[in-house]
Amino acid sequence: MILPEPTVMEQILAKGILDISTFYSTTDYYIYQGITRGFHYELAKSFAEYLGVSLRISEVNNDIDTAIARLQEGRYDLIAVSMTQTPERDEKIRFTDPFFHTREVLVQRKEKKKVENPEDLDGKSIFIKKDAPFRHTLSQLADSLHIRMELVEVSHYSSEELLHLVSTGEIDYTITDENIARALSYSLKNIDYSVALSSGITVSWAIPQSADLLLKEINEWLEVIQKEGTFRFLYNRYFNNTHSISRNRSNYALIRQGDISPFDRELKQYNSLLEWDWRLLAAIVYTESRFDPEAESQVGAYGLMQVIPETADMFHVLDYFQPDSNIYVGVRYLKYLEEVFKKYPIEPEERTKFILASYNVGAGHVMDAMRLASKYGKDPYIWNDHVAYYLRHKSDPRYYRDPVVRNGYCDGQQAYNYVNRVLETYNSYRHIEQTPDSRS
Predict the structure, then answer these.
(1) Which residue from 185, 222, 186 is spatially nearest to 203, judged by alpha carbons?
(2) Which fold has domain 264-426?
(3) CA distance 296 to 318
(4) In terms of DSSP H, where are the helices of 345-387?
(5) Are 304 and 289 in contact (CB under 8 A)?
(6) Where are the beta strands (DSSP E) in 191-237?
(7) Which CATH superfamily is domain 8-97+207-256 in?
(8) DSSP character for 305?
(9) Cα dihedral 332, 337, 343, 347 in deg (nearest 10)
(10) In angstroms, rounded to a whole number, what is the distance separating the alpha carbons of residues 170 and 132?
(11) Which of 241-255, 347-361, 401-415, 418-432 shows the lowest mean pLDDT across its residues?
């Protein structure tokens, strides 16, 4: 008997992860001061929690056609951006119920405002992102009003970046959604978006065409968060809150360049000792201290990487209170732990989890968990459901008093949670060097 292929919803529940694709922009998903933010990111996280699974950003892709093709291939479960429904897209993907409605507006500079009505666009050059949904709107306007416009499609700028080019005077006109223009206008105070070109635009997520159960779950969840106020709260946070938006948007250049923290230069410099992705190191620092160089724990750990005096002594560093030396000590200790676990036949990706747990509670406790795993028939070189299980239970006398245990009691659940937090943060950070975008 041939069993049917599992549905998208069944696959999500089986793996315990919701895989999404999104855009890097100040309204979809971005990193600011080490914190993952974004309207669609927070919505996707809420939906993952609703399903009881983890959220994973599988890809940050500002090319919507590529994202749609990869959604069809099953590389991720949904595209969490502001998607516009079109007949062409209906043939390839499925849309959820609308999150909200908006209008397409012309964006121009206030001090050079020449266009008061769509008719005034005759003879003007308008820049839009290639494959953005605005081409159809402009074509309809040109036909109905009997005007001629030069449409300039660009692939090396996102829709959001085009607003910045209008603000700086490098181009005169672009088009975007009204809610996006309003959000950015709190920091780009010289842009005007008063001229509407179309209305009734629906904004939705995209899912595979066959994902009936996933569609049902998303629409039910959306109804719940709209009723309880969560949706309105998030919408206001990113589109209507002048204080939070101006604060978040004021560092757009920092976000655009892919910076995570004020200490990125030092993280990249000392990460050369490890040869890891420096953004994983940044995720450790965020988890340890939230990038506070003066953070201090109750047990005397200090600084960005929460270094203790004994660890600083290992590497003959006295002034570990300075950010650069604190990072240096933390990296040297991570390198030391890496050499400890390289002695075992652990795959590199798995080894990272062993190292992270050891950074939190010490290598001795992790090796105790490895011995327990081996004794009880589990694989001592695999983390999830094997070594992690016994580390989580090292607070149980049945295990920490076991003869193979050499280091006694340990709050292993804390270390397990620490590993998950670091990897979740890294999953957000590892995409930030992609090019931003807005609605597609």
Answers:
(1) 222
(2) Lysozyme (1.10.530)
(3) 17
(4) 348-361, 363-375
(5) yes
(6) 191-207
(7) Periplasmic binding protein-like II (3.40.190.10)
(8) T
(9) -110
(10) 20
(11) 241-255
